[in-house]
Amino acid sequence: MTMTAAQGEPKVSTQPRREVDDSTYRRILTFMYDEADLFDAHRYQDWLQQMVSEDIRYDMPVRQFHEGGVTRQRPRQNGYFADDYHSLLARVTLWSKPGTTTAENPPTFTRHFVTNVRAFEGEGAGSYAVSSHVLVFRVRPTEPTPHLFSGRRSDSLREVDDQLRLVSRFIEMDEHVLMAANLSYLI
Amino acid sequence: MKIEDWRTANLGDLVDPEMGWVSREIFVSPEIHRLEMERLFLRSWLFVGHESEVPRPGDYVTRQMGDDPVIVARDKDDRLHVFLNACPHRGAMLCRADEGNKMAFQCAYHGWTFGNDGALVTVADQFDDYRGRVDFNDYRLVEARVGTYAGCIFATFDDELMDLDSYLGDSRWYIDMFFAKTPGGVEVLGAPLRWQAQKNWKYGAVNFAADGPHALAVHGPVTQYIVGGETFPREELLRIAKTGPAIRMDNGHGGIFIDGPEGAPPWFGFDPELVETYRRTLNENQIKLMEHMFNGVFTIFPNMSWVHFPISFSEQQYPAMFFNLRTWQPTAADRTQIWNWFLVDKEAADWYKEASLRAGVQTFTAAGTFDQDDAEAWAAINNGSKGTIGRRQRSSYQMILASEEDHIADFPGPGRAYASTYSEMSEFGIFLEWRKRMMQAG
């Protein structure tokens, strides 16, 4: 089974991918659901410590409309996330106390819906390439109208000491104008 | 002030120039918003993009001027055009993509085609049916006046408005410092972000003109996270924040500078290999302001702003300066669409461009560690101001009563500089200009 690469996504191998076996798929799905639960409970520091690799890359570029779907190639792309471990640590640390965040005090309501999870053997043993669709329903105290974020995540997971960890996440967002005043949560 | 009052009385009463009061009506009233489209946005040079976004003939981007969609295009002779993005035939948006490259635009409705120089090329199947009774010269694309300064593309649909250089006035000296500190100038990195917030566009324009005290109140925690609370106590941050100048310029432009702490090396956060070039390109006074600058925040009236300072979330990473440019588009009285660019000197090293872009994305986008908190503060202002009683209240810029005496006579740059970013002098300058323009009918 060959995965097709979305616009701007990191290069995907054109070799046929092997889907993981059932028990690995179950473990990866559990990982995705655990992560969604931690996000919705605002336990971001736990997420970073328990589920993320220190060489994490976390990216979400801008998305635009182009004729014929042909994007202009650029050496660098603008976006909402271009994070590594240090900047993610900053985000989750600032969110962890009411006195260090305005956007998340009061904490906003989020509900992460993770679907369409596909998991393939990655480069090397214990590595997995995982894609998923995500919807995040969110309400802020200053805006009763909920915002629904939609996107597709392309992840790289790695098994370390029997623990799956996120090594990279690339998010293709489904809006070209983000219809929200801010994005103070993780996807 | 109630709506009936300002209609019969005077728009000028909505801003009190002597006492520093601003009626909150101007942030929530749909009628005033409508009037702003005519009296303010129409009569301004509006930023629509940067030359580095349309470098080759045929390149185009679709942008916004006030509440009108426009196409910014470079024709085959390398000339820039800004057109109303509407077919002269029946008004359909000619181009629905965000950017691309082509020499002509074809309307999807009847197939009429227009060159990117504005001329009608073909009326598709309908030419014979007109039987020569129609003057096709009536069917050019509606074109705005275009001006560029330091690579920034401005446009206006007002044929009477002064030229761009006169409009920018003193702000050109500061634009040069940020956009043209090397011979090659700056380039845009990637495409602009766009997000929509429930607030009036003026909260952003004024905040970037700039609002001194919110920096520590809203951004204190993230700033201290970055610089380290022990080495950099809050009192020191406060001292630095207050010490920077606020500059008020003619035509409504304004900005602030904040220097780095004592002992910080000069040109902190800039590309070290470009420092010699900056010294050769800038003049002595510009160097004086730039070499110790940590923070420069400016608004070009009405709705173009920029912010610039060094960021690193890790001691191992160079604290590169990000350069964020944005426009606050007036979607509705209570809706602003923010367009957000990052720029960097063209001649900067690749590693520096990466670091600068990353620093900007991590701080000044809707997800950014600075922006996300501002968004909530501005939404809160909107909610506190939009009610019947709320809109009758006045917003205070009364610090000017104290600050007016702190004019810095020997400030190295043009415009009138005041001693503190907490002075509210440059912020209130936005409202003085707003008042002046809104009072000019017809």
Structure summary:
Chain A is an alpha+beta fold and 187 residues long. In chain A, 20% of the residues lie in helices and 38% in strands.
List keywords for this structure.
heterodimer, A: 187 residues, alpha+beta, 20% helix, globular, B: 442 residues, nine-stranded antiparallel beta sheet
How many beta-strand runs of chain B? 22
- How much helicity do the residues of chain A have? 10-25%
Q: Largest chain interface and its two residue counts?
A: A-B, 43 and 51 residues
Helix content of chain B: 25-40%
Average pLDDT rating of chain A: 92
Taken from the alpha-carbon principal axes, the silhouette of chain A is globular
Roughly what fraction of the amino acids of chain B lie in strands?
A: 25-35%
Secondary structural class of chain A:
alpha+beta
What distance separates the N and C termini of chain A?
26 Å
- Beta fraction of the residues of chain A? 35-45%
Molecular structure report:
The complex is a heterodimer of chains A (187) and B (442). Chain A is of the alpha+beta class and 187 residues long. In chain A, 20% of the residues lie in helices and 38% in strands. Chain A has helices at residues 22-40, 44-51, 85-95; strands spanning 52-61, 79-83, 109-121, 127-140, 143-160, 163-173. Chain A has a 6-stranded mixed β-sheet with strand order 2-1-6-5-4-3. In chain A, helix 1 runs antiparallel to helix 2 (44-51). The radius of gyration of chain A is 17 Å and the shape is globular. Chain A starts with 21 loop residues before the first helix and ends in a 14-residue tail after the last strand. The mean pLDDT of chain B is 95. The two termini of chain B are 24 Å apart. Chain B is globular. Chain B has 442 residues and is α+β, with helices and mostly antiparallel strands. In chain B, strand 4 and strand 5 form a beta hairpin. The longest helix of chain B has 15 residues, at 371-385. In chain B, the strands form 5 sheets. In chain B, strands 13, 14, 15, 16, 17, 18, 19, 20 and 22 form a 9-stranded antiparallel β-sheet that branches. In chain B, strands 6-5-4-7 form a 4-stranded antiparallel β-sheet, with no helix packed on it. A 3-stranded antiparallel β-sheet of chain B has the order 1-2-21. The interface between A and B is large, with 43 and 51 residues.
